[in-house]
Amino acid sequence: MALKCAVKLRIADIIHSHGGPITLRQIASGIINSPSLDIPCLARIMRSLVCKNILTAHHPSNGGETLYGLTPASKWLLHDNELSLVPMVIMENHPWQLAPWHCLSQCVKEGGIAFEKAHGCEMYYGIG
After folding, report:
1. Beta pairing class for 55-58 and 22-23
2. Please, what sign has the CA dihedral across residues 17, 48, 43, 1?
């Protein structure tokens, strides 16, 4: 979900537009339509993305603010790239796609197909 959040907030695009690593405040100022942005929440998301090697974090030795940068993986999250995984990240994290995972334990107990339990129809009928 942190990845979906990063895509929706365009974090990789914000960093890319600055041409190099930037601070959390700079990222926050680039997030549009956010009158009451939760900086601690954004910081947690950034830490998660750093832990997964989606972004880099540089902690200056002089005690300055952490600088967040792009990795080769995060370049796939740029919205305007010809080859972008943005649509796939959004699709794979859509509630319709995630619902069957919430039925998995029920399938183990009772048998059946998780998609059908979640949506009441076979996958191919749900698509059309």
Report:
1. unpaired
2. positive
> What is the DSSP secondary-structure string of 27-86?
HHHHSSS-TT--HHHHHHHHHHHHHTTSEEEE--TTS---EEEE-TTGGGG-TTSSS--H
Rg (CA), the chain: 18
Count the Cβ atoms, other than its own, within 10 Å of residue 92: 12
- How far is the CA of 79 from the CAs of 3, 11, 23, 83, in angstroms? 14, 10, 21, 9
Tokens coding 74 = 């995060």
Nearest to 121 by CA among 102, 107, 100: 100
With CA atoms as reference, report the closest residue to 69 among 50, 42, 84, 41. Answer: 50
pTM above 0.85, yes or no: no
Structure tokens at 72: 């080769």
What six digits make up the tokens of 125?
A: 């009928």
Q: For the segment 23-44, what is each residue's pLDDT rounded down to a tens digit?
A: 999 999 999 888 889 999 999 9
